[in-house]
Write a structure and sequence with these properties.
With 526 residues, the protein is α/β, with parallel strands linked by helices. Among the domains are: 33-192, ANL, N-terminal domain (Rossmann fold), CATH 3.40.50.12780; 338-428, Luciferase, Domain 3 (Luciferase, domain 3, Roll); 431-523, GMP Synthetase, Chain A, domain 3, CATH 3.30.300.30. The protein has 16 helices and 25 strands. The longest helix has 17 residues, at 40-56.
C-alpha cells in the first residue's frame, strides 16, 4: 500500500497566513523599538523573501543548515524559510558551546550556517567555518531589502514539494546522559506531532500563548494562534525577571503557556509575594519532574488555571499528562504520577537491560514486566522518533525493533499502577544496588526535598560509594544544615550507608534548568 503523501509542513503556516492575514502571529520585544507585532501576512512575506535569498545562495532541497539563533523573530523566519525551500534546519540551542557545535557538524555534515554575531565567532572557531554558505542575522535579512525580488529571477511562488519521509528538522538531546543525539524529524513526523499536540494540549486559534519552548511556537503557527516570546534569556530559562514576564502576560492577555517547572516556580513566587493575579486559562509544565510541593505553589499562585504536568522527551512530546491536583495528593513512595499515556502512544514497561535490547520470537513480551513492577518505560507511536542522524550506535542503544514497530527506550524508570496511570521512579541508570536491595532514586529524592530548608536533592553512586546531596542555598544556618543532614540520614538508613553532603547548588540541565545533571555531579568524584 502506497504511503499517504503529507507534503511540506510549512503549508500549515501558509494556510493560516492566507486565512488570518491581519492576525498577530508573533509578538516580541526589542530593546530599541519596544514591542513589535508581526501579523501572519507580514511573517509570510518575510519567509518568502528569506526563502528567495536562500535559493539565490544555492540552498535547496535536502541541504542541512545549522541555525544558531536564540528564540526570536529571526529564528522563526529563518526556520520557516528553510522549510519553504525544502532544506533542513539543524537547530542549536541558545546555550550551545563550541564542543556542541563541533559535535553537530560531525553528525549532521551541514552545507550552511545561519547565526547571530556571537554565534558567528563560535562558528569561525569550529569545523563549520568550512561550510559552503554562511549568513549572519539580522544582516542576512537586511540584504533582502536592498534588492528587488525580480532581480533574482528565481521562482518562489510555492514551497518546495517534499514527501512525508523527507527530512525537515534536526534537534539535539541535551547530552546530560551522554553525547547529544541528533533527532531526525521529517515533514511527516512534524505534521503528526502537530496534530497530536493540538489535540492533547487543546490550544485553539483564539488563544494568546506565552511560548517558552522554541519548537512549540512552530506548533502555534500551525494552529493559527498568537505567540508572545517572553522577555528572558533563552540560554537561562530558569533565571527570569518575573516582573517583565508579568507585564507581558497582563499587557497581551495571555491565555495559555507551556514551559519548564523552574520558569513557572519563579513566576509563581513573584505573584504570591506581590499579590498578582494572572489571566492564564491553561498552563502546561514539562521538561522535568513536577513535584507535589511545586504543584501546591503553582495551584496557589494560579488558582483559576487548568494546570497540567506533561511527561515527554526530545524523542516523543507528549507521552502522558495529568492535572497537578493528582500530584499534590500523591504518595511519592508509590512513584511520581505522570498520568495516563495519551491515546496515540503505546507504552510498555520492560526489565532493565544494559546495552541493546534484541527481541526474539516472543517479541517485546520476553522483556515486559508484570503490572505494578518497576522497569524501563518504552513507547511507540506516530510521533515517537524512529531514528537518529548518522548514529547506528545511538539507534541500537535507544531503539527496539519488533517487526515493523520501532520502540523508543526513554531511559526512565516507571511502573503502571492499579489505576492505569504511569508512575515515575527516576532514571534507570541512576538506580542503586545496595546491600539491602535495589533502590530507585526519584521517590527518595522527593522525600529528601521535603526536609525543611532543602531546595533540591540528588542520590547517586560514584566510584563505588553512595552519596546524598542536599541543595540548601547560601545563608543557611549551621543548625539548619545539621537538622537537614540528620533527617536525610534517618530516611536513608534503611537502605544502607550513604554519605550526606550539603551544597549550595546542584548542577542542572542546560535546556530547562530544572532536572539534576547527574553526569556532571558524578564527574566530581571520578
Amino acid at each position: 500500500m502506497k504511503k499517504k503523501r503529507i507534503g511540506n509542513i510549512v503549508t500549515k503556516f501558509i494556510d493560516n497566513a492566507k486565512r488570518y492575514s491581519d492576525k498577530a502571529a508573533i509578538i516580541y520585544h526589542n530593546k530599541k523599538k519596544g514591542y513589535t507585532t508581526i501579523t501572519y501576512e507580514k511573517l509570510y512575506r518575510d519567509v518568502r523573501d528569506a526563502a528567495l535569498l536562500l535559493r539565490a545562495k544555492g540552498i535547496g532541497k535536502g541541504d542541512r543548515v545549522v541555525v544558531f539563533v536564540p528564540m526570536s523573530y529571526d529564528l522563526y523566519r529563518t526556520v520557516l524559510a528553510l522549510f519553504y525551500v525544502g532544506a533542513v534546519a539543524v537547530f542549536i540551542d541558545a546555550w550551545g558551546t563550541l564542543e556542541r557545535l563541533n559535535h553537530a557538524c560531525r553528525i549532521a555534515d551541514p552545507v550552511g550556517f545561519i547565526g547571530t554575531p556571537k554565534a558567528w565567532i563560535l562558528m569561525m572557531l569550529s569545523h563549520l567555518r568550512r561550510a559552503k554558505v554562511k549568513c549572519m542575522v539580522p544582516s542576512f535579512f537586511e540584504t533582502i531589502l536592498k534588492k528587488k525580488n525580480d532581480e533574482y529571477d528565481i521562482d518562489i511562488d510555492a514551497p518546495t514539494d517534499v514527501g512525508d519521509d523527507d527530512e525537515a528538522l534536526v534537534t539535539f538531546t541535551t547530552g546530560s546522559t551522554g553525547n547529544p543525539k541528533a533527532a531526525r524529524r521529517t515533514h511527516g513526523f512534524l505534521r503528526n506531532q502537530h496534530e497530536i499536540l493540538a489535540r492533547s494540549l487543546g490550544i485553539s486559534r483564539d488563544d494568546v500563548d506565552l511560548t517558552t519552548l522554541p519548537v512549540f511556537l512552530l506548533n502555534n503557527l500551525a494552529v493559527g494562534c498568537t505567540s508572545v516570546i517572553p522577555r528572558f534569556d533563552p540560554a537561562k530559562p530558569g533565571f527570569i525577571n518575573p516582573s517583565l514576564i508579568v507585564d507581558q502576560i497582563l499587557r497581551f492577555k495571555i491565555t495559555t503557556s507551556a514551559g519548564s517547572p523552574a520558569f513557572y516556580e519563579s513566576l509563581a513566587a513573584y505573584c504570591l509575594d506581590n499579590i498578582v493575579s494572572l489571566p492564564f486559562k491553561k498552563i502546561f509544565v514539562g521538561g522535568a519532574p513536577v513535584y507535589p510541593e511545586n504543584s501546591k505553589i503553582l495551584r496557589k499562585a494560579f488558582p483559576s488555571a487548568d494546570i497540567r504536568a506533561v511527561y515527554g522527551s526530545t524523542e516523543a512530546e507528549p507521552i502522558a499528562k495529568l492535572p497537578i491536583e493528582d500530584i499534590i495528593g500523591c504518595d511519592v513512595r508509590e512513584g511520581l504520577p505522570a498520568g495516563n499515556a495519551i491515546r496515540e502512544i503505546t507504552l510498555r514497561i520492560i526489565r532493565p537491560v544494559e546495552g541493546p535490547v534484541v527481541v526474539g520470537k516472543k517479541g517485546l513480551r520476553e522483556f515486559t514486566v508484570k503490572k505494578g513492577e518497576i522497569g524501563e518505560i518504552v513507547i511507540t507511536g506516530a510521533h515517537v522518533l524512529k531514528e537518529y542522524v548518522n548514529s547506528p550506535e545511538d539507534f541500537s542503544l535507544n531503539k527496539i525493533v519488533e517487526g515493523t514497530k520501532i520502540w523508543h527506550r526513554t531511559g526512565d524508570a516507571g511502573k503502571i499502577g492499579t489505576d492505569g496511570k504511569v508512575y515515575l521512579f527516576g532514571r534507570v541508570k541512576n538506580r542503586i544496588h545496595t546491600e539491602r536491595g535495589e533502590i530507585y532514586t526519584l521517590p527518595l529524592e522527593i522525600r529528601l526535598k521535603g526536609i525543611a530548608g532543602v531546595r533540591a536533592a540528588a542520590i547517586l553512586n560514584a566510584a563505588g560509594r553512595h552519596y546524598v546531596f542536599l541543595e540548601m542555598g547560601s545563608g543557611i544556618s549551621r543548625t539548619m544544615e545539621g537538622y537537614a543532614r540528620m533527617e536525610a540520614e534517618k530516611i536513608m538508613r534503611q537502605f544502607g550507608t550513604f554519605e550526606v553532603h550539603i551544597i549550595s547548588s546542584l548542577p542542572r540541565d542546560p535546556r530547562h534548568n530544572s532536572k539534576i545533571d547527574y553526569e556532571k555531579l558524578r564527574k566530581l568524584f571520578h
